[in-house]
């Protein structure tokens, strides 16, 4: 949970504790392997809803025709009902449609899936048209009902933004389960230091698991922090936030970012 506690921490008896500590039951790799082999239809959003991102006019027309054949809907903008986003090819581009889809656990598929579905006249299985990495991690995270990417994290946006729109960055944070701070966190503030939430998607052995407040600044600006971290507060460029979304990982904060 957000305080870093696991089920075993709440075990009331030794028998319960031993059951929860059995090998392979609680590590994330086992969970992912398990998710790939069980029926997770109950966790999916509902009937398929398609959305194109970055498609040329001919590709978009083909997608619309396929939707008619398959009797599914096509949307022009992302919303919570979208289940599949179709892109021209990999790698995935940093469009708002793709990033919101990734954070929401949608399928992100290449246009080859459209062509294959046309050829068969059926809704083709998606796995072979999905990129491994961020898109797959995001989808499995949602199917497993795990916390969102920025769960347990707090973000303050410093100054003006040119490279990425501030409103878009805030929308990504909210979609990823993060909290927006209205005031700049101060490392020597008692309230700041007493926040004891844990970032679920940070490496448990890293400082980012318990230092969960981030000041985001425009990567294209001349501003550079004197220190990347003070107390429980990090200062990172907006590109770090985008990279986290695309990888669906809370990436390490490195000196090279500054």
TrEMBL record:
SMART domains: BRCT. InterPro entries: BRCT_dom, BRCT_dom_sf. PANTHER family: ANKYRIN REPEAT DOMAIN-CONTAINING PROTEIN 39-RELATED, BRCA1-ASSOCIATED RING DOMAIN PROTEIN 1. This is BRCA1-associated RING domain protein 1. Residues 145-258 form the BRCT domain. Pfam families: BRCT, BRCT_2. It comes from Thamnophis sirtalis. The keyword Nuclease does not apply. PROSITE patterns: BRCT. The keyword Repeat applies. One of its GO terms (biological process) is protein K6-linked ubiquitination.
């Amino acid at each position: 949970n957000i305080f870093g506690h696991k089920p075993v921490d709440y075990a009331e008896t030794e028998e319960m504790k031993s059951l929860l500590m059995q090998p392979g039951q609680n590590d994330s790799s086992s969970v992912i392997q398990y998710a790939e082999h069980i029926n997770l239809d109950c966790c999916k959003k509902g009937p398929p809803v398609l959305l194109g991102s970055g498609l040329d006019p001919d590709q978009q027309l083909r997608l619309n025709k396929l939707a008619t054949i398959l009797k599914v809907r096509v949307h022009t903008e992302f919303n919570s009902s979208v289940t599949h986003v179709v892109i021209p090819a990999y790698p995935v581009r940093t469009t708002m449609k793709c990033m919101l889809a990734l954070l929401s656990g949608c399928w992100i598929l290449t246009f080859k899936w459209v062509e294959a579905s046309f050829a068969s006249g059926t809704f083709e299985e998606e796995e072979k048209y999905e990129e491994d990495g961020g898109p797959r991690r995001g989808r499995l995270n949602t199917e497993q009902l795990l916390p969102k990417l920025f769960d347990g994290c707090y973000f303050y946006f410093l100054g003006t933004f040119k490279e990425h729109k501030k409103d878009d960055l805030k929308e990504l944070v909210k979609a990823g389960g993060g909290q927006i701070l209205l005031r700049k966190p101060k490392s020597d503030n008692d309230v700041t230091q007493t926040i004891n939430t844990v970032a679920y998607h940070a490496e448990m052995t890293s400082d980012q698991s318990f230092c969960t407040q981030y000041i985001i600044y425009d990567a294209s600006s001349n501003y550079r922090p004197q220190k990347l971290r003070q107390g429980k507060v990090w200062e990172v460029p907006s590109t770090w936030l985008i990279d986290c979304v695309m990888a669906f990982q809370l990436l390490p904060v490195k000196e090279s970012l500054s």
